[in-house]
Write a structure and sequence with these properties.
The chain is an alpha+beta fold and 378 residues long. It has two domains: 2-181, no CATH class; 192-377, 2-Layer Sandwich (Alpha-Beta Plaits). Helix content is 59%, strand content 9%. It is built from 14 helices and five strands. β4 (296-303), α13 (314-330) and β5 (336-341) form a beta-alpha-beta unit. α5 (94-101) packs antiparallel against α7 (117-140) and α7 (117-140) runs antiparallel to α8. The longest helix has 33 residues, at 149-181.
């Protein structure tokens, strides 16, 4: 999500808005000290002062520092939620204190967009518990609202409507929009942005097994569209996606990265990467129910996912796979070509050295073509 905002050049604006929430928290705390219905007593003043300070620190943190890691973000949310609740309990007028609890909607909205459903459930649960306790002290405590059970229930219901209904709906809607932004609408595979996102999550830590990226491009696909029309071409793309799903490893990432271009990323296990690529090539070449045979040129880039100098950058691995795929096309298509990303410091160099690709120009380690295709080419 952060990468998506940065890509669209709005991350700085989002940070300003989030930081402004801290300043509003500071202003609200100061008003509670000034108001005759606000906080009174030494303990209340201390808590309100702490609320103002934390709100100011929150604003400075977001305006001056980079986006926080998840752990830091959760700590901030926990501290602010706790301070808002305690501060609201010290307000003399309990209804006014209930209005202060509504500020938890701000942190809940942040959680709904940037954190998981589990974290949102904890946040909403804390908010509802806070308003329930505040309503109980309002109804059963001292003051002008004592005994007004209907008002206490109304306060709980109003907060339940906002926190228990609106926030989960916001998160679900946001999740659906994010899924749509990361997927290809025609094939329901990942798109390039989705591939980059899932790649960083699944292959971004050390200690992983050797990985592979397989680039596939359907051979002479323009002639398919020209001969049968674009609706038929779309059907071919959908069927290709289905064949890749069925033939790829269960945990592999599958993406449509271009018109008729696909990428499969996975981890090398029992079967070598070239064998996996051959399985994918054969799955496409044997698609049933079509008036013509669809074939693909396949390039395989193998990379070490547990190296002391870190992982190769994804775009460079994909460039290596693309280079192998284009060589497969030059060999006539319906072919698998394998290369390897193996040099030290490959992911940190401004431009990759040609020797980063094993073989340095002789990178073909496996070619696959049906025997009748070999004879025809001969």
């Amino acid at each position: 999500m952060v990468d998506f905002l940065e890509y669209h050049s709005v991350l700085g604006r989002i940070k300003i808005v989030i930081g402004a929430g801290g300043m509003l928290m500071l202003v609200n705390a100061m008003l509670m000290v000034i108001s005759p219905s606000g906080v009174r007593g030494g303990a209340g003043t201390v808590v309100t002062t702490a609320s103002a300070v934390i709100g100011g620190l929150w604003a400075v943190r977001w305006w001056a520092l980079p986006w926080p890691r998840e752990s830091e973000s959760l700590v901030w949310i926990g501290v602010i939620d706790g301070v808002i609740t305690v501060d609201s309990m010290f307000v003399q007028d309990r209804v006014l204190g209930a209005l202060g609890i509504i500020m938890l909607v701000a942190t809940g909205s942040y959680v709904a967009v940037f954190h998981s459903p589990r974290v949102l459930a904890l946040s909403v649960g804390w908010s509802l518990l806070s308003i329930a306790v505040l309503s109980a002290t309002m109804v059963f405590g001292t003051g002008r609202w004592r005994g007004d059970i209907a008002l206490g229930v109304a306060v709980v219901v109003a907060n339940l409507a906002v926190m228990g209904v609106v926030l989960p709906t916001v998160q679900l809607s946001h999740w659906l929009l994010r899924m749509d932004a990361l997927s290809d609408p025609l094939t329901r595979l990942l798109n390039r942005r989705g591939l980059d996102s899932h790649w960083s999550q699944g292959y971004g830590s050390a200690g992983r097994a050797t990985g592979y990226a397989i680039a596939l491009d359907l051979d002479r696909f323009k002639s398919v569209n020209d001969r049968f029309g674009h609706p038929f071409g779309d059907e071919v793309l959908r069927r290709t996606a289905d064949r890749l799903r069925s033939a790829a490893d269960s945990d592999a990432l599958i993406a449509r990265t271009g018109g008729e271009e696909f990428v499969v990323v996975g981890r090398v296990r029992d079967a070598p990467a070239a064998v996996v690529a051959e399985r994918l090539r054969a799955a496409i070449a044997t698609m049933p129910g079509l008036p013509i045979t669809i074939t693909a040129s396949v390039g395989v880039a193998v990379f070490a996912a547990a190296r002391p100098d870190g992982l190769p950058a994804p775009y460079r691995v994909l460039r290596a796979a693309d280079a192998a795929m284009y060589r497969a096309k030059r060999l006539g298509g319906n072919t698998v070509v394998r290369t390897e990303v193996s040099c030290q410091g490959y992911d940190t160099a401004p431009e990759p050295d040609p020797s980063c690709f094993a073989g340095a120009g002789a990178e073909v380690s496996r070619l696959t073509r049906p025997r009748h295709e070999q004879h025809r080419r001969s």
